[in-house]
Design brief:
The chain has 179 residues and is an all-alpha fold. It is built from seven helices and no strands. The radius of gyration is 19 Å and the shape is globular.
């Protein structure tokens, strides 16, 4: 709507990775600034326990980085969708709702019925919240993490490939007016 994509096209960088990097920065800095004091307060006053082992802690850190990359791939796909829509509110609300329900934010995924477990285990949303949290509290043993990390990275790679394809199609039909 604003035409800022024309300015971004003049930069000597790949547009997709520029948007991905921006999503990475806008997610990492605020989370680190909020999460660090929250972990300290929760650990000192609210009884937050550390992961059950060093292996669980390492697995949690790796899964958290994987969740960050996956979230940035989703955010970049949402930004690219603006090439076809006037407002990004619809896709943003749809994705936020799907993420909230299917990532375990409202109801932990193990509490869903058995028939839903198969579907939930395949969807990418599990890699955003469920996997890191369950690794932190020890519900998933560290020896079972390799397939989970592979799933996070596979969904991230797939979203990146689809996003780049959609972006290349959008750039072919993009018309910038004004000046």
């Amino acid at each position: 709507r604003s035409g800022s994509v024309a300015y971004e096209l003049t930069r000597p960088t790949d547009l997709y990775w520029f948007w991905f990097s921006r999503a990475l920065a806008t997610r990492t800095a605020p989370v680190l600034l909020r999460a660090t004091p929250m972990f300290i307060v929760a650990g000192l006053f609210l009884g937050l326990q550390p992961p059950p082992s060093w292996a669980s802690a390492a697995a949690w850190l790796v899964a958290t980085v994987g969740a960050l990359l996956l979230a940035c791939a989703f955010a970049t796909l949402m930004a690219i969708s603006l090439l076809w829509t006037i407002s990004g509110d619809g896709i943003a609300r749809l994705l936020a709702t799907c993420t909230t329900v299917f990532s375990g934010m409202i109801l932990p995924l193990p509490l869903f019925p058995d028939w839903a477990q198969t579907i939930l285990n395949v969807l990418p949303f599990r890699g955003l919240m469920d996997i890191p949290f369950r690794l932190y509290i020890g519900h998933i043993p560290p020896r079972e993490t390799l397939p989970l990390f592979a799933q996070q990275l596979a969904w991230t790679a797939l979203l990146i490939l689809v996003s780049r394809w959609i972006l290349s199609r959008g750039m072919r039909r993009l018309v910038v007016q004004g000046g």
